[in-house]
């Protein structure tokens, strides 16, 4: 068997070999038609590991016939870039695949940029990070296409596995392997849309399986033991991690318990308990808010319990907190009201604090006119406690309303009180 790993050997040679990503490389797409006519634009490929960035770059190289060079930005230096520039001057045009492009420093970028701009170097950059956050704007501006790749489907994965099992030259086709369609589907599901993991898992299963009478017999137990954590991708500092946090919050906000628990599970598997706890506390006040004011203290208790317990037991109180927030009434009225007040200040809507509200805890306050404040507790109003009609906002803001109640859960009662107090004002 060849020394190279199976994913490397099975890498697509041309665009027609690519499985999946039809939204950007299907035969009817503009990019496919351009490359078929030997016109390759500079581009950025953005997506999670194993979904085809490197394979697409190699396939484009195979379809375009351009001299092809591949660098990894975590290892390449200025000299590597200069060597490719020399080759571009000799050949007229070269295709450069730059993996982990967001790791390129400014000096390396400055060396490369004019040659990309002139067309001497066609750049295909690949990144797992959001290019709008992590790729230098100068690089982005010279790449006409920013292509977001999607995780491959189970059908795509089974096709990739079947192809590897049938390929006698680069795959496992020369070996007699007894594997069922159900087992192939198990491999496809376990790899979680990552083609590299699927082929790595397939190769591992082949080597770990018993051989009988010259035939390799794959059993379910071998697949299960090797596939335990293959679906976990946990770069705690990367875009995918923050996308998971965003998806968790939006699922809770949308009251989808199953989706919220799925994203919570993925986040906890990444191991960053601190970031998860911080986001859950924010959600309690941002998304549930006054509609169920008790949720804030309940989520805080769950977070504190998780910190004492640590993983894996921390998942238990956090699961309770997520389900509670999902199924709670929701309101964002309080923080939206504060944001409106902040916006008013930033837009210049400020004024003097009314004299009767100013500090009087010093001699001479009366001589400055700091008088006239009425103590609300001295004016009982039903079961509310105390209230008196007096001005609190500066003169220029009198009559301004920042708070708009949401008629949900406990805030319905607060909204009633708010509206009634408005009616009492002169």
From TrEMBL:
<dbReference type="Pfam" id="PF16193">
    <property type="entry name" value="AAA_assoc_2"/>
</dbReference>
<protein>
    <submittedName>
        <fullName>Recombinase RarA</fullName>
    </submittedName>
</protein>
<dbReference type="InterPro" id="IPR003959">
    <property type="entry name" value="ATPase_AAA_core"/>
</dbReference>
<comment type="similarity">
    <text>Belongs to the AAA ATPase family. RarA/MGS1/WRNIP1 subfamily.</text>
</comment>
<dbReference type="GO" id="GO:0008047">
    <property type="term" value="F:enzyme activator activity"/>
</dbReference>
<keyword id="KW-0547">Nucleotide-binding</keyword>
<dbReference type="InterPro" id="IPR032423">
    <property type="entry name" value="AAA_assoc_2"/>
</dbReference>
<dbReference type="GO" id="GO:0000731">
    <property type="term" value="P:DNA synthesis involved in DNA repair"/>
</dbReference>
<dbReference type="InterPro" id="IPR027417">
    <property type="entry name" value="P-loop_NTPase"/>
</dbReference>
<dbReference type="GO" id="GO:0017116">
    <property type="term" value="F:single-stranded DNA helicase activity"/>
</dbReference>
<dbReference type="GO" id="GO:0006261">
    <property type="term" value="P:DNA-templated DNA replication"/>
</dbReference>
<dbReference type="InterPro" id="IPR008921">
    <property type="entry name" value="DNA_pol3_clamp-load_cplx_C"/>
</dbReference>
<dbReference type="InterPro" id="IPR003593">
    <property type="entry name" value="AAA+_ATPase"/>
</dbReference>
<dbReference type="Pfam" id="PF00004">
    <property type="entry name" value="AAA"/>
</dbReference>
<dbReference type="GO" id="GO:0005524">
    <property type="term" value="F:ATP binding"/>
</dbReference>
<dbReference type="Pfam" id="PF12002">
    <property type="entry name" value="MgsA_C"/>
</dbReference>
<feature type="domain" description="AAA+ ATPase">
    <location>
        <begin position="39"/>
        <end position="151"/>
    </location>
</feature>
<dbReference type="InterPro" id="IPR021886">
    <property type="entry name" value="MgsA_C"/>
</dbReference>
<dbReference type="GO" id="GO:0003677">
    <property type="term" value="F:DNA binding"/>
</dbReference>
<dbReference type="GO" id="GO:0016887">
    <property type="term" value="F:ATP hydrolysis activity"/>
</dbReference>
<dbReference type="InterPro" id="IPR051314">
    <property type="entry name" value="AAA_ATPase_RarA/MGS1/WRNIP1"/>
</dbReference>
<keyword id="KW-0067">ATP-binding</keyword>
């Amino acid at each position: 068997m060849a020394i190279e790993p199976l994913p490397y050997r099975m890498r697509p040679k041309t665009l027609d070999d690519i499985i999946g990503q039809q939204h950007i490389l299907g035969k009817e797409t503009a990019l496919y038609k351009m490359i078929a006519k030997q016109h390759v634009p500079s581009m950025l490929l953005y997506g999670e590991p194993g979904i085809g960035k490197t394979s697409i770059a190699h396939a484009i190289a195979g379809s375009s016939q351009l001299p092809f060079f591949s660098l990894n930005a975590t290892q390449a230096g200025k000299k590597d870039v200069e060597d490719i520039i020399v080759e571009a001057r000799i050949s007229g045009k070269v295709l450069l695949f730059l993996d982990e492009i967001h790791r390129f420093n400014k000096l390396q970028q400055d060396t490369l940029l004019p040659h990309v701009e002139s067309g001497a170097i066609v750049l295909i950059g690949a990144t797992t990070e959001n290019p709008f956050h992590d790729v230098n704007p100068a690089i982005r501006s010279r790449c006409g296409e920013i292509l977001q790749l999607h995780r491959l489907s189970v059908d795509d994965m089974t096709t990739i596995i079947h192809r590897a099992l049938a390929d006698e030259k680069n795959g496992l086709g020369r070996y007699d392997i007894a594997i069922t369609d159900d087992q192939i589907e198990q491999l496809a599901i376990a790899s979680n849309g990552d083609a590299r993991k699927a082929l790595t898992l397939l190769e591992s299963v082949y080597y770990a399986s018993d051989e009988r009478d010259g035939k390799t017999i794959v059993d379910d137990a071998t697949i299960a033991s090797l596939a335990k954590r293959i679906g976990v991708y946990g770069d705690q500092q990367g875009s995918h991690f923050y996308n998971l946090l965003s998806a968790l919050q939006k699922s809770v906000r949308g009251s989808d318990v199953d989706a919220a628990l799925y994203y919570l599970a993925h986040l906890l598997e990444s191991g960053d308990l601190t970031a998860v706890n911080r986001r859950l506390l924010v959600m309690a006040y941002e998304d549930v808010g006054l509609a169920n004011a008790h949720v804030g203290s309940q989520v805080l208790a769950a977070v504190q319990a998780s910190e004492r317990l640590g993983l894996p037991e921390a998942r238990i109180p956090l699961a309770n907190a997520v389900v509670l927030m999902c199924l709670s009434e929701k309101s964002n009225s309080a923080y939206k009201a504060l944001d409106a007040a902040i916006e008013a200040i930033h837009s210049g809507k400020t004024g003097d604090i009314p004299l009767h509200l100013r500090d009087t805890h010093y001699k001479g306050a009366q001589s400055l006119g700091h008088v006239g404040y009425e103590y609300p507790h001295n004016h009982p109003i039903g079961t509310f406690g105390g209230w008196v009609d007096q001005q609190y906002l500066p003169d220029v803001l009198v009559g301004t309303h920042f708070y708009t109640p949401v008629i949900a859960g406990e805030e319905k009662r607060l909204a009633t009180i708010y509206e009634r107090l408005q009616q009492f004002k002169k």
